[in-house]
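Submission sheet (multi-component)
Chains listed below:
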Amino acid sequence: MTGSRERILGRVRAALADVPRDERPDDVAVPRDYASAHTGDPIPTLVDRLEDYKAIVHRVATGELAEAIAETARRRSLARIVVPPDLPTEWTAATSASVVRDDGLAVDQLDAMDGVVTGCAVAVAETGTIVLDTGAAQGRRAISLIPDVHLCVVRADQVVNGVPEAVAQLDPHQPLTWISGPSATSDIELDRVEGVHGPRILEVLLTGE
Amino acid sequence: MRIALFVTCVNDTVFPDTGRAVVRLLERLGHEVVFPEAQTCCGQMHYNTGYRREAQRLAVSFVKTFSDADAVLVPSGSCAAMIRDNYPRLGETGSPLDREVAELAPRVYDLAELLVDALGVVDVGAYFPHTVTYHPTCHGLRVLGLGERPYTLLRAVRGLELRELDGATECCGFGGTFAMKNAEVSSAMGWDKARSVATTGAEVLCAVDNSCLMHIGGVLNRQRSGVRVMHLAEILASTEEEPARI
Amino acid sequence: MSRTFVGMPDFPTAAAEATRDPQLRHNLREATHTIRDKRDSAVGELDDWAQLRAAGKAIKDRTLRHLDVYLEQLESAITAAGGTVHWAADADEANDIVTRLVRDTGEREVVKVKSMATQEIELNNALERAGINAYETDLAELIVQLGDDLPSHILVPAIHRNRAEIREIFLRTMAEWGVPAPENLSDHPEALAEAARVHLRRRFLDTKVAISGANFAVADTGTLVVLESEGNGRMCLTLPETLISVVGIEKIVPSWSDLDVFLQLLPRSSTGERMNPYTSTWTGPAEGDGPRNFHVVLLDNGRTDTLADEVGRQALRCIRCSACLNICPVYERTGGHAYGSVYPGPIGAILNPQLHGTSGPVDASLPYASSLCGACYEVCPVAIDIPEVLVHLREQVVSGSGHAMEKATMGAAGWLLNDGRRLGLAQRALGAARSMIPRRAPGPAAAWTDTRDLPEIPERSFRRWWRDRANGGEGGQP
Ligand code: SF4
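Outcome: structure written.
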């Protein structure tokens, strides 16, 4: 396909005949005077925005995380919970559900799980977004996708105000999943309905305030 | 102030009352109005239909006719927008037309701008004891950015009751040749607009553009709604001594 | 074979028909007004929207003016990350590449994430000809595919369907395609979404090949970005072994950090949310996580022709948010099918004639499918001056052959209007003949008078009144 590569690049260059030869990309000025954030009060904003898009938020004191996870699992009747291999064992110490560490489970095994517990990389307050980067306590992408209930632990020090701060902190070489509430669709009469293919329930455990 | 009136070809031919109202209003406010008789048309229809060269010729003629004026009043939102927003696209960068347009355009005003910005009046001493609703028109709203000006002027008119128009920012569907080339869609838009107007219960629909008013008024007439359409100038020209007929 | 837009009538004809369909008018009005309000409040939350919009525009302009540099940069970054880049000059080539890549896997089924580029090249039909079944997984795309329908909106391709119609389609067709809809299916959106979940679940878990588009391709890192809501995107991007992404060459942004602008502009303009439920980004295949084989097909298909037009080029800034469709009073009344393409609405009116040229009847009529009200420009998050491009394209249309009558009229009007004296004389003639002008006109003017009255022509023009007054003539009072 080299032929088409050269042909397309040739067409692009011909199309840009009006651009001065010595102009470099950076010569096209980009005004960057937009705000880096629109809130200065990240934790309450995050809670508000998560709830607005139908996530359930629990503010949990440090030291009470295991009990909170156990309680949520009980309330949701989660019998089997998958967790990433490096999830701190204390987190699931109190639950009576059977906890399965992901060691490369097949999709059908994942599909048999009722819920998943993960941490996160960053949370964006003003959009109510939690970002997973497959790093510490998050595991691979499939485990937070297939089970229907996602319990996500967010530490207060992981919360940033706005999108620009999050983009700056994240490493694009990791696969990233930005999650804002449970899965949803507006495809029927633009009426928003929560719960389609991705987890239908997102419960956020906010710790370390 | 000495104000040169560019009445526009449509007002000149079909809506002379608007031009007369402008003259009456400005003279009443103590200003001198001149009407350069060489004027014709801003070229909007040509430009919008794709006839750039014809539009260019008309732009050249406009600039020649009005280059000496201190202020040019254009009592038609879309024509004022044509001059200010599109004339700069007609001349090659650095061409005489380009330079002359850049020099003249800041002195070209729509009626609401002339009154509020250039002449600094809001209360023009008008009297109009009727219920009125105002349609902002696309060019007035989005290109000229008239904002609150027309409303402020109308609110200062004695006897006038202003009614809010639902869906005011939505286009009436005129769009020049659009009204002919896509007549069904255009009139569907016009009928929806007329419905919103009728819902206000106002006696008069006001705007700063007679083309839109011709379109909406044509529908209102066909619907036998009894709502009358009037250019802003005609309402502002109305006084107790010489009230506008509705 | 699914339906295509080939052989559609020109815009005025299709639009007139659509405008007369009360069900369609109702569905569109409800839907567009809902989404407009949502967008307004999401955008209204950000006091720096104007700055974000200016930045978005400038980033895209930078990209387009140096597209060759960024394309090469993107290619090497993707390659370095372990992906394979293919170049497709047109739709046929792109379809051939994708078909070959799927065949190489030995699979005969693929799942698809909603993608405008693959709609544009009619990939599903090409795959079908090669004996490969492509399953759409976005709910609205699914509705269109099951209903053997055509998309009518960029974001919500089934916007022209209401819940009752969707229920009927699901009941009638799901069984043919796989898991049937439950017999007692109601028309509640929750129930319809659940039916789609059940219908597609196994498909997601079993299918080995996925095809996606991308909202953005980041040149400096080789990262692809997909924004979605339902999780069907995550399923397709995560579970299969092979992922093929078809990406228009204009989807590039120069650098990772530029996403801070677009991840704010796009969701708020598009679904009217602060953020869409899911955004996935990936840079090549990841060890032990997601597809092992990753291909990107870079698609030209008319984009370089668009790029060559200095005025029309700005259409390539488009991030396909569909805000211009939702605000457009013409689209609201005609729906998307009248535009004869997968790109409807204001962006379609400027993009299609540029991608295909203006020689066909539909494409030649699209630049006129607008009252030039400017609402699209106002909401466009990358400030595409759609009215400017429409007028520019009208120039191209009239400079071609045809339009003899209109050219003659414009010429005559130009002649008349070039001289104040000539205009004055014509006005006198018109004033004298005014009683002969009928209220309902025949011929082309009937387009006006069928639904609207004409104003009365006054006896005396303004010009004549002014002259009379200067001469102290009768009735000279203003
Ligand atoms: S033209 Fe602008 S408003 Fe329309 S879809 Fe593209 S980006 Fe969105």
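Remark: Residues 39-207 of chain A form a domain with the Rossmann fold fold (CATH 3.40.50.10420).
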